[in-house]
């Protein structure tokens, strides 16, 4: 299947069994692949595909009760499946190194960065202390951390997410391993930071001729960085081949379907937008004050600064930005989960920013919200129908009637009405998000505020939910404010886009214009940072 | 249902439950098995256990049946433990819920009071309360409850703090729910499991506190309590050590049973922890 | 320096708590049947109403409650805790005499519980669900359920009465007053059983929390990182797990300082140690409310001091704390 002459690692018919009671007997079955030196092999798959399990299997760091039960993993002429614990310890760090998704939790919070990198040398080499410190500084310089001397003395919480990941990479590369395993190393990072880290990995790989096994769920990242691709589903390798071939000419139906679900950056044809605005936001600001005792040492963070936006009736306004840009705070100001300090939010002739809590509670059915996390946004102790019916019941609809209406809504959002008596944990992530949508729609709102409604979902599910949202918008004449960090998603569904940075809107306009001809340098940087280049812009797709 | 199944899969939890049921059975059958007043003179003083079939566990310094006192003592321990726990959990949930939900100055004031209760050693406060209000069954029970609420309050507050900004609570707010609806309907049911589990700790401590008080002869002298008996046995410790030893074992078994049930509940309600 | 400032601020924040306690307990004691004068008169073997009135005036007990409270707090600022009619000495003197045995007992018990709790917790977590873990966890549960006064009595029966290895009570041998090193050994011998008795329940609590937090930390991402680096299990534990797992236990010491002080009331009574706890008990029995209030003040102060030390320790262990300042 994969005949590579100078393979650094070759995995042959690897099987990994799960403990009894898991959702399937095998985490991996009959997985065969190999990595040549000096190449980046991307393993891509949705959640539950077994891609991370494979990374842990290679390091022999599987959770308790999860076992390798068949196959071989040959690294430097030695079968890792049969290696002793002591032999594995020599391979780990020195022969094969690993970086993880969340650098904050992957670093020990109580020890300095320099100390943790130095540990690599003290375990595997006999270098003296001064030699080690010199090496640590050189490494930190190599991963281009600003001011390596300071960074070496810093604790993980004192660095930014991108810097922490750079430190992780420095640590992994300390002993010039033959193979670097990167398990979703950029998933927790903002898009601009992600672009920098991807570039860094690419550069270091080329300079050091390291083989990289790169695990990701994002086809954009694959297009950006991969030499070869392995596609996995349910613990099985579906397809593998050169990156260009798999991306542009996938052979297997599953791969085709996955790639079709990736939203391209190209906006669909523009829709006609009404001239009348349903919602007008002007001069809204919100400042957070944290810490401080009697006013001393208090930190003031302007979360939203003087934001003015308008939403035409029936249109969808996308608010995009990276973490900390204030987009979620703005969304919560609009539905008054947070009270804005200044400015007005005018809907149906009333200034919602000025309503008292009690007035707002009565008027709240005009504006509803869909939340990000499909697991946290549903009360685990209520049945699905009850969750959807809650809003109407609060506003005076008799219970039986509200439950009956809820079941109708189930059909509307593409759920089986007979599943209405189940509890949230019995639904999948995508289904939960549909319940959340039904709950918001139960009050027949004029405006829907959707806060990252698809970011927690797998790409194929994401496409389905976006499609549903677009359909409902047409059918019910909804006006939507759509918050997202993913410009590709915004391009698919939004008529208008506003780009936020540090609490302020830096650019706004028609989606096609903002994405096609960005004016502000920050928007340009954001667009340039989207991984995948030409692939991201132009690949064949199922349009929303 | 799943939780129930998980509970019965743990041998320790089942053992705890059986022990607890035995203690409850003892309490329930006390007046049936020993219709006479357990504090009345029954026979010769200081009969060793198992030497006289009429007094299986022997008699104490003043000739009262130890077995009868153990059975009636189960009643007192469970009663004081149960009621004091109910009081402590109720106060704790009220204080914790308001502090955690409203935050700001409400939280500040309530937490200062909680801190005051925690800074003052609870047994010292118990002594003060007994000194002021006397040592009847009612006052002792209330006093034990009053010194035990701070930890449940902190626990409830912590749960409320983390839950009140959870997305499903925010969703409830955007649906137009009132504060009370959010507190009672959305947050409290989700905040309860750790508090219920902690109730077992409160109950264990309450039983120990009362027995210590009784041992110091500061609890109600007119009821048959295990602590009283241990205190009494202290006078004859050199030779007839069994007078103190037997009720001590009763306390140990009861507290152990309560702890095991609590731990079993914890593992059953938080399966994530058990799998480790 | 920064850490000291942080802990200092926490210390300052506990002043209102202290005042709250004093006001609360002062008002509570007003409800008590009988006052100092009643206790005094009882001790003198009775007296007429005129004497009582005279005495009440002398002690300022004829004033209104708020004024009395004000007077009390004002005297407190000058470290005057009032006068104990039972002991015929200022309360401050009585308490100071009784403080050393209690502090010694608490320090010894805490060290014992902390050291063995840590050790057993680590052993249990390293062999989770195997026999050392089962044994340690079971013993922990039993220790937790053992009433300390009962354990003390049984220890006396075994070690003092049958084996005659250790003294049954007291702080020092009364018969022959020892000096120098022999005196220290004498006191140490008297403190062995009380230390075990008081420390037992805390040993159980610490080992349980240590075991749980070890297991928790062992599952964290950075431990996986440490293993991926090629560290052996011993070094994973000593370098990456132990210090992190210690944090909850350190927090617990602060939270339970009060409980431990409360426990010393019972233990000191069992072993007739002339400490603060026994004084508390005696003043309740003898209705010496002035002394009781003084004890409340001093024990709250002790708890606050312990928490201050714990704060310092915690900040030394966890660099994230200083950053939050």
The share of residues in extended strands of chain C comes to under 5%
Please report the number of helical segments of chain C.
13
Oligomeric form: heterotrimer
Determine Rg of chain A (CA atoms, Å).
25 Å
Overall body shape of chain C: globular
> How many helices of chain A does DSSP assign?
21
Helical residue percent of chain C?
Answer: over 70%
Strand order of the largest sheet of chain C: 1-2
Strand order of the largest sheet of chain A: 6-7-8-3-9-10
Chain pair forming the biggest interface: B-C, 48 and 54 residues
Low-confidence region ranges of chain A: 292-296
The tally of beta strands of chain A, per DSSP, is 20
Strand content of chain A: 15-25%
Rounded to the nearest angstrom, the radius of gyration of chain C is 24 Å
Shape of chain A: globular
Q: What does the secondary structure layout of this molecule look like, with pairings?
A:
The complex is a heterotrimer of chains A (544), B (276) and C (325).
Chain A: E1 7-17, E2 26-36, E3 40-44, H1 51-58, E4 67-75, E5 78-79, H2 85-91, E6 96-99, H3 103-106, H4 113-124, H5 129-142, H6 148-153, H7 161-172, E7 179-183, H8 191-208, E8 211-216, H9 219-225, E9 228-233, E10 236-242, H10 243-248, H11 253-261, E11 277-290, E12 299-312, E13 316-320, H12 327-334, E14 342-347, E15 350-351, H13 357-363, E16 367-370, H14 384-394, H15 399-412, H16 429-441, E17 447-451, H17 459-476, E18 479-484, H18 487-493, E19 496-501, E20 504-510, H19 511-516, H20 521-529, H21 533-538
Parallel strand pairs in A: 3-8, 3-9, 6-7, 7-8, 13-18, 13-19, 16-17, 17-18
Antiparallel strand pairs in A: 1-2, 1-4, 4-5, 9-10, 11-12, 11-14, 14-15, 19-20
Chain B: H1 2-9, H2 11-33, H3 66-102, H4 104-119, H5 122-133, H6 137-148, H7 150-164, H8 167-174, H9 179-215, H10 226-233, H11 242-269, H12 271-274
Helix pairs in contact in B: 1-11, 2-3, 2-11, 3-4, 3-6, 3-7, 3-9, 3-11, 4-7, 5-6, 6-9, 7-9, 8-9, 9-10, 9-11, 10-11
Chain C: H1 2-30, H2 36-44, H3 49-58, H4 65-77, E1 83-84, E2 89-90, H5 91-126, H6 131-145, H7 148-162, H8 180-218, H9 221-228, H10 233-270, H11 276-285, H12 289-317, H13 319-324
Helix pairs in contact in C: 1-12, 5-6, 5-8, 5-10, 5-12, 6-8, 7-8, 7-10, 8-10, 9-10, 10-11, 10-12, 11-12
């Amino acid at each position: 299947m994969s005949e590579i002459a100078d393979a650094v690692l070759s995995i042959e018919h690897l099987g990994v069994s799960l403990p009894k009671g898991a959702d399937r007997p095998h985490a991996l079955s009959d997985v065969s692949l190999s990595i040549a030196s000096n190449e980046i092999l991307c393993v891509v798959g949705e959640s539950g595909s077994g891609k991370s399990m494979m990374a842990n299997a290679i390091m022999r760091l599987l959770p308790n009760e999860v076992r390798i039960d068949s196959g071989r993993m040959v690294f430097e002429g030695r079968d890792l499946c049969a290696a002793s614990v002591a032999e594995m310890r020599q391979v780990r760090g020195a022969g094969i190194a690993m970086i993880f998704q969340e650098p904050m939790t992957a670093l020990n919070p109580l020890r300095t960065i320099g100390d943790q990198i130095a540990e690599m040398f003290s375990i595997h080499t006999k270098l003296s202390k001064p030699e080690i410190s010199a090496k640590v500084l050189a490494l930190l310089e190599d991963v281009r951390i600003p001011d390596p001397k300071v960074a070496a003395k810093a604790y993980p919480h004192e660095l930014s997410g991108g810097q922490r990941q750079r430190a992780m990479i420095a640590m992994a590369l300390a002993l010039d391993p033959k193979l670097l395993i990167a398990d979703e190393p950029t998933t927790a990072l903002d898009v601009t930071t992600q672009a920098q880290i991807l570039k860094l990995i690419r550069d270091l790989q080329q300079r050091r001729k390291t083989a990289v096994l790169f695990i990701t769920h994002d086809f954009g990242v694959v297009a950006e960085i991969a030499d070869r691709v392995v596609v996995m589903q349910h613990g099985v390798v579906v397809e593998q081949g050169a990156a260009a071939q798999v991306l542009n000419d996938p052979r297997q139906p599953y791969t085709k379907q996955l790639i079709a679900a990736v939203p391209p950056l190209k906006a669909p044809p523009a829709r006609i937008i009404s001239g009348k605005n349903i919602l007008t936001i002007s001069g809204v600001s919100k400042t957070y004050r944290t810490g401080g005792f009697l006013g001393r040492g208090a930190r003031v963070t302007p979360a939203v600064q003087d934001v003015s936006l308008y939403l035409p009736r029936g249109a969808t306004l996308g608010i995009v930005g990276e973490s900390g840009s204030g987009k979620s705070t703005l969304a919560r100001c609009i539905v008054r989960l947070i009270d804005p300090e200044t400015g007005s939010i005018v809907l149906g002739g009333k200034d919602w920013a000025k309503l008292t809590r009690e007035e707002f509670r009565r008027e709240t059915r005009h504006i509803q919200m869909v939340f990000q996390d499909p697991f946290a946004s549903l009360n685990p102790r209520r049945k699905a129908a009850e969750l959807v019916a809650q809003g109407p019941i609060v506003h005076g609809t008799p219970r039986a009637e509200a439950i009956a209406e809820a079941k109708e809504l189930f059909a509307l959002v593409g759920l089986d009405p007979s599943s209405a008596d189940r509890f949230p944990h019995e639904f999948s992530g995508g289904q939960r998000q549909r319940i959340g949508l039904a709950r918001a729609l139960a009050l027949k709102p004029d405006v829907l505020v959707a806060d990252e409604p698809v970011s927690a979902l797998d790409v194929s599910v994401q496409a389905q939910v976006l499609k549903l949202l677009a359909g409902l918008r047409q059918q019910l004449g909804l006006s939507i404010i759509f918050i997202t960090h993913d410009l590709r998603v915004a391009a698919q569904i939004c008529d208008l886009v506003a780009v936020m940075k540090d609490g302020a809107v830096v650019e706004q306009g028609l989606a096609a214009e903002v994405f096609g001809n960005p004016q502000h340098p920050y928007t340009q940087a954001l667009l340039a940072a989207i991984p995948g280049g030409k692939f991201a812009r132009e690949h064949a797709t199922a349009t929303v | 249902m799943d939780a129930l199944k998980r509970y019965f899969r743990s041998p320790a939890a089942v053992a705890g439950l059986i022990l607890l049921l035995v203690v409850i059975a003892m309490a329930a059958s006390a007046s049936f098995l020993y219709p006479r007043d357990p504090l009345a003179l029954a026979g010769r003083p200081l009969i060793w256990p198992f030497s006289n079939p009429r007094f299986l566990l022997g008699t104490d310094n003043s000739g009262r049946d130890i077995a009868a006192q153990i059975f009636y003592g189960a009643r007192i321990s469970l009663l004081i433990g149960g009621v004091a726990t109910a009081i402590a959990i109720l106060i704790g949930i009220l204080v914790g819920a308001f502090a955690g939900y409203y935050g700001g100055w409400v939280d500040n004031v309530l937490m200062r009071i909680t801190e005051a209760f925690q800074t003052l050693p609870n047994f010292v406060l118990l002594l003060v309360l007994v000194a002021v209000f006397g040592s009847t069954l009612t006052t002792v029970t209330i006093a034990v409850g009053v010194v035990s609420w701070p930890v449940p309050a902190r626990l409830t507050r912590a749960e409320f703090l983390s839950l009140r900004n959870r997305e499903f609570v925010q969703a409830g707010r955007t649906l137009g729910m009132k504060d009370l609806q959010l507190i009672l309907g959305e947050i409290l049911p989700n905040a309860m499991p750790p508090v219920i589990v902690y109730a077992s700790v409160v109950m264990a401590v309450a039983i120990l506190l009362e027995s210590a008080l009784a041992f110091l002869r500061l609890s109600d002298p007119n009821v048959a309590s295990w602590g009283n008996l241990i205190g009494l046995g202290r006078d004859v410790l050199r030779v007839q050590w069994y007078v103190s030893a037997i009720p001590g074992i009763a306390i140990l078994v009861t507290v152990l049973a309560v702890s095991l049930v609590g731990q079993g509940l914890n593992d059953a309600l938080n399966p994530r922890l058990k799998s480790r | 320096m920064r850490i000291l400032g942080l802990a200092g601020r926490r210390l300052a924040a506990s002043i209102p708590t202290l005042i709250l306690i004093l006001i609360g307990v002062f008002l509570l004691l007003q409800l008590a049947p009988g006052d100092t004068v009643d206790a005094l008169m009882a001790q003198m073997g009775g007296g007429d109403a005129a004497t009582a009135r005279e005495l009440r005036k002398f002690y300022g007990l004829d004033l209104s409650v708020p004024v009395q409270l004000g007077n009390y707090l004002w005297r407190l600022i000058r470290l005057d805790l009032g006068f104990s009619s039972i002991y015929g000495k200022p309360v401050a003197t009585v308490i100071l005499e009784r403080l050393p045995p209690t502090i010694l007992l608490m320090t010894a018990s805490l060290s014992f519980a902390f050291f063995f709790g840590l050790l057993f917790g680590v052993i249990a977590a390293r062999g989770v669900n195997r026999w050392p873990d089962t044994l340690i966890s079971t013993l922990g549960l039993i220790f937790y359920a053992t009433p300390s006064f009962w354990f003390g009595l049984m220890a006396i029966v075994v070690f003092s009465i049958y084996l005659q290895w250790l003294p049954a009570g007291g702080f020092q041998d009364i018969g022959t007053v020892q000096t120098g090193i022999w005196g220290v050994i004498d006191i140490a011998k008297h403190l062995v059983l009380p230390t075990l008795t008081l420390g037992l329940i805390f040993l159980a609590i610490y080992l349980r929390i240590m075991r749980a937090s070890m297991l928790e930390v062992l599952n964290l991402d950075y431990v996986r990182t440490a293993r991926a680096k090629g560290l052996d299990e011993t070094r994973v534990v000593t370098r990456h797990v132990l210090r992190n797992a210690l944090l909850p236990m350190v927090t617990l010491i602060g939270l339970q300082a009060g409980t431990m002080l409360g426990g010393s009331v019972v233990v000191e009574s069992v072993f007739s140690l002339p400490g603060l706890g026994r004084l508390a008990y005696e003043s309740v029995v003898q209705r010496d409310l002035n002394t009781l209030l003084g004890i409340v003040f001093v024990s709250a102060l002790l708890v606050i001091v312990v928490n201050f030390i714990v704060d310092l320790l915690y900040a030394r262990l966890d660099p994230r704390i200083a950053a939050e300042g």
